[in-house]
Amino acid sequence: MMELTCNKILIVDDSRINLEVLDGLLKSSYQVYLAQDGRKALELAREIQPDLVLLDVMMPGMDGFEVCRMLKGEPRMEQVPVIFLTALADTRHKTKGFSLGAVDYIPKPFDALEVQSRIRTHLSLRRSTLELRNQNLILEQKVQERTREIALTQEATIESLASLAEYRDPETGGHIQRTKTYVRLLAEQLRSHARFRDELRDATVELLEKCSPLHDIGKVGVPDHILQKPGRLTPEEMEIMKKHTLFGYSAIMTARKKMGMNVPFLTLAAEIALTHHERWDGSGYPHALRGEDIPVSGRLMAMADVYDALISKRVYKPPFSHRKAVEIISRGDGRTQPGHFDPAVIEAFLAVEEQFYRTALRYADSEDERQSLAA
Length: 375
Known about the structure:
Elements: E1 8-12, H1 16-26, E2 31-35, H2 38-48, E3 52-56, H3 64-72, E4 82-86, H4 91-99, E5 104-107, H5 112-168, H6 175-190, H7 202-211, H8 224-227, H9 235-242, H10 244-259, H11 264-275, H12 296-311, H13 322-331, H14 343-351, H15 353-362, H16 367-374
Parallel strand pairs: 1-2, 1-3, 3-4, 4-5
Helix pairs in contact: 2-3, 6-7, 6-12, 6-14, 6-15, 7-11, 10-11, 11-12, 12-13
């Protein structure tokens, strides 16, 4: 804690006698600096950064009001207390001084005890204010550190849960890392679109990226003989596979309910898990939603999921090249049709397809897949 005797006091008065009186009164207790005009006072204030300013009002050239205004206009001086020294005791002058940021008035002629008392009071207040500000900064830093810890823990938990489904499906590999990046790319591209501007704010884009790894968490509820079948699924098996959307939604919503509050990232994760296989033309599952009835999160995840499935190796197909995947998404080939996707999302995909390609290369499961991407 800083002692008051270490404080620097700048005294500004055009009267040499007044300066000498105040200097003699205060120099044994404080570091005192003197200025006889406004310009010198401003120069000295910038140099020494005083802890308090005693400022005469009536001075030739630049008066005390103007000096105070200029001092308060500088960020480093804004919180430094200014006490006016004046023989002007009328309310109008006092009101003007306070409006400019002064904290007190000391009338002339000076009373030694009054001067010392008011200086001690305002220096003590300044010290307390600075200490409180430092405590608030420390607290804010701790809150930010804790928030970062929680965010990292949340992200690690999400990816760990998502990996449960990934580990049971040996063909997915880097699917989680790729698709979460695709979703962010699409969301950021769509933010300038009038239809999506309000829904894709910064916080939502962050949540979309964090939540997207949970889109297939419901696969933990699909029997191994279906999930890991080395071939195409029968219609009956496909109906069971489709239920992974419902399983995922139910599991995430159960977790949210147990928390007893609306947790945004769980709400969004549940929405993605439920709707990422819905199709714009109504041909998707589990509820055959159509068009705008499909949440934006589901529409973005659908595009990311399909692109990744196309470029990845499956037991029933080799990995397609990036060029072929773009062609299928934009023109259709029987597996998927442009009508499956929101046209605006297709447009966004085509705008960032080169970034999709680089992401796919970065997180490719094998060297063979890297080569097939470039074919």
